[in-house]
Task: inverse folding
């Protein structure tokens, strides 16, 4: 493409799932045809540069007509130069989000009669965006996408390739990869986050957009470490809408757990931490892994005990790790904060006496739980592993509970039988003994609010 020629905005989605051509069924777009879609501000086209059993790639090309973007398009002509000369026809922004919603609406909703078993199955996915305006550099895209479990790669484009001394253009080519998401999840994430990354919307932002954010953010936004940033930018910094959204979605699962209508007692979160520390000390663990550490509340408690000489904490979110770092304070010599995902083996987790997954597994999803098991039990192999998770039966004790699970971001919650069966199956597979214990005051009928299992590795022989 020659210098000065318009570069089209594109969204490319590819997979190596076998057969890769199943992507055509999921997207409801046939790989053998080029398809055009009229839009209010231009047109979109979908074609497949590659469609084989091994790899399939679908490209959504957006062609924005700058004349249709001007306020004078329908009324009197505009006399403002900016209305005609701007970056909107050339960048991946809210126009691309609208095109994605219109072209891939059925795929985003999770409907596919031809391949229904694939809709909710994580497959290897790669999305590439050309010309993403991220005017604050690479920080915002990584802060928003990495906590969702995506691997992010960004290429910063120069203002002029012939004159690098002029600096960058504030435009990036973005690549995100994951083998732990479904295609509908990827499309919903992109639909919400495209205008957030650009921080500019071309349409009116009202109450309908708040409801849109709730609908498409369900299951992932409430516990996102940048929840406030995402909601502010998505809602155009309209304070009333942002305040209402954050009030509806406080993002704190402890609130629901502790509001059981009775006298104020020690919080369930504190009881979990106390139970965990007591068992770690009984096991004589001097080095501890805090996996899915979040904002570092367990780290803070572990640092109060001199017996824990080495604490390694891992989380997928850079934002929550930053907040955990503040809790560490002057104890940096005892704590190592790692950015990473439990869905992938990590040699940095090896060599510890104990590992803790406190209220983590229910956020992962049962379909991906085996990956966590392999990373923790199969590779890291600490002598002691402690896992806590909600007891679904106890939800009946919570007054006026309106949601299916105790928190919107929970992918599942086990009852006592299911938890016991999972714990013993994992223990048998990886040569551990499993001890099931309660946390919190037990209800005579529904059991404890939190379930806990202490795994102890068996000696060889």
Result:
């Amino acid at each position: 493409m020659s210098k000065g020629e318009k570069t089209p905005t594109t969204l490319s989605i590819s997979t190596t799932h076998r057969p890769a051509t199943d992507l055509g069924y999921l997207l409801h777009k046939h790989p053998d045809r080029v398809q055009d879609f009229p839009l209010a501000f231009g047109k979109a086209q979908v074609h497949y540069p590659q469609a084989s059993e091994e790899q399939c790639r679908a490209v959504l090309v957006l062609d924005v007509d700058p004349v249709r973007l001007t306020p004078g398009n329908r009324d009197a002509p505009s006399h403002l130069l900016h209305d005609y000369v701007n970056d909107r026809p050339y960048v991946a922004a809210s126009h691309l989000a609208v095109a994605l919603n219109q072209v891939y609406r059925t795929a985003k909703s999770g409907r596919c009669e031809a391949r229904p078993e694939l809709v909710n199955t994580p497959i290897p996915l790669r999305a590439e965006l050309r010309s993403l305006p991220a005017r604050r550099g690479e920080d915002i895209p990584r802060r928003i996408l990495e906590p969702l479990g995506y691997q992010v790669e960004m290429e910063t484009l120069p203002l002029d390739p012939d004159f690098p001394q002029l600096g960058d253009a504030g435009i990036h080519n973005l690549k995100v990869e994951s083998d732990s998401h479904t295609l509908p999840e990827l499309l919903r994430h992109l639909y919400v986050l495209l205008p957030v990354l650009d921080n500019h919307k071309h349409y009116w932002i009202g109450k309908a957009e708040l409801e849109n954010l709730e609908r498409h953010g369900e299951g992932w936004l409430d516990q996102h470490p940048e929840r406030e940033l995402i909601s502010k930018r998505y809602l155009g910094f309209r304070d009333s809408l942002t305040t209402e959204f954050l009030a509806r979605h406080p993002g704190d699962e402890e609130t629901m757990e502790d509001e059981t209508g009775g006298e104020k007692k020690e919080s369930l979160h504190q009881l979990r931490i106390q139970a965990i520390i007591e068992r770690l000390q009984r096991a004589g663990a001097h080095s501890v892994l805090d996996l899915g550490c979040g904002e570092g509340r367990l780290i803070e408690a572990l640092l109060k005990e001199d017996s824990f000489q080495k604490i390694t904490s891992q989380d997928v979110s850079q934002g929550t790790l930053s907040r955990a770092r503040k809790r560490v304070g002057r104890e940096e010599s005892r704590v190592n904060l790692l950015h990473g995902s439990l869905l992938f083996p990590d040699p940095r987790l090896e060599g510890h006496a104990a590992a803790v997954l406190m209220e983590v597994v229910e956020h992962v999803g049962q379909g991906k739980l085996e990956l966590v098991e392999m990373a923790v039990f199969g590779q890291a192999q600490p002598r002691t592993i402690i896992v806590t998770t909600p007891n679904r039966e106890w939800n009946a004790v919570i007054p006026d509970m309106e949601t299916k699970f105790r928190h919107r971001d929970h992918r599942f919650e086990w009852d006592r039988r299911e938890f016991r069966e999972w714990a013993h199956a994992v223990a048998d597979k990886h040569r551990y003994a499993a001890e099931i214990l309660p946390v919190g005051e037990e209800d005579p009928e529904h059991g404890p609010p939190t379930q806990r299992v202490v795994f102890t590795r068996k000696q060889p022989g």
Remarks:
- The two ends are 67 Å apart (CA to CA).
- Residues 1-5, 72-92, 259-265 have pLDDT under 50 and may be disordered.
